[in-house]
Amino acid sequence: MSAERSLQAKPSRGAELQSPTAGDGRTTPIVRPIVVLGAWRSGTTMIFQALSAHPELWTLYRESQTVIDPVFPVRMVPGASEVVTAAQVDERTASELRGRFFEAVGNMEAAHGRAAKAVPLIARVRLSRLTTKLGVRVKRAPVRIVEKTPANCLRVGMLRAIFPDAQFIFVVRDPLASIASLHHGWTSEPRFRIYRLPPDFHVEGYSGHHWCFGLIPHWERLNGATLTEVCASQWVVANECALADLPYDYQRVLTVRYEDVVAKPGDVLSRIAAWADLDPEPLRRFHKGLPVVNTWSRPRPDKWRRLEGELAKVESLIAPTRERLGYDAA
């Protein structure tokens, strides 16, 4: 099955204004959230930051670990991972997480209107704990939010249980480029170091002491693997989990290719606005180029070639997922 999903019919604004109720009959504080999904280093940040500047959407301006992790904490022990299924979410937990999201999100555009455009998106990310406080005075339930956390590829079931009316933007990227970027993050960027590695765990070609990016299921089986194999496994597992758990509903899931985001940002944003029933006008400021916030250099299609030899060794691992996502072999 291909990951490509096309829009059949966009929801009406009437649907947007209907507030679903929680299991206890109360009106939920969040309606039709937009969840941006994609494996780590797939380009989700560019789309997320553009949508976070839309006045109709409330946002954390950062990833949602501070909201989710206290409810579903993770430790790097055998058998653990960042996977959270729908079965782990009862109505009390769902209600708590909806409330935590509602309390945490902000909206600079709601607070300052046109003046908010003068604040660079990178500043919004770096000052996210401050910017999320903006707009609080005009925040009234229900709100519509946009969320982006790559680890949520492993938590689609949880998200669907919390937000039954969620819409998902699934960002996919050629595996060679994505895995090469993961590899660079492991070796060069302290900010991606999350879990302290057990003393008996070894990754060939990696001298660090921390697991980087998301903790995938069965991570312990990668003891002794090369760093490229670890990164390839993270890419495969994130995409396969998302493909398995996303709803088969063209109104609920929109697949976006990273390569199109870079080459044709205006077309991609127009497509997203129509699908999500958003006013397209606020997104026109990004039609010549989406914000590059979480990267080391401008996008370039051949950056992965520095690892070409190593990537060839994981061809059999990535090939089935690559084909499902509609990418050809290099």
Q: How is the largest sheet built, in terms of strand order?
A: 2-3-1-4-7
Order of helices and strands: HEHEHHHHHEHEHEEHEHHHH
Q: Specify the overall morphology.
A: globular
Report the total helices.
Answer: 14
* Rg measurement, Å: 19 Å
Overall SS class: alpha/beta
How many structural domains in the coordinates? 1
- As a percent range, the share of strand residues is 5-15%
Query: Which stretches are poorly predicted, pLDDT < 50 over at least 5 residues?
Result: 1-19
Name of the level-1 CATH class: Alpha Beta
Oligomer: single chain
N-to-C span = 21 Å
How helical, in percent, are the residues?
25-40%
Please give a handful of descriptors for the protein shown:
7 strands; 14 helices; five-stranded parallel beta sheet; alpha/beta; two-stranded antiparallel sheet; 330 residues
What does this protein look like?
By secondary structure, this protein is of the alpha/beta class. It has a single domain (13-324), classed as Rossmann fold. It has helices at 13-17, 44-52, 65-68, 91-104, 108-112, 121-126, 128-131, 156-162, 175-188, 227-245, 258-263, 265-276, 308-312, 315-324; strands at residues 34-37, 58-59, 145-148, 167-172, 193-196, 210-212, 253-257. Strands 2-3-1-4-7 form a 5-stranded parallel sheet. The protein has a two-stranded antiparallel ribbon with strand order 5-6.
Question: In short, what is this structure?
Answer:
This protein is of the alpha/beta class. The chain has helices at 13-17, 44-52, 65-68, 91-104, 108-112, 121-126, 128-131, 156-162, 175-188, 227-245, 258-263, 265-276, 308-312, 315-324; strands at residues 34-37, 58-59, 145-148, 167-172, 193-196, 210-212, 253-257.
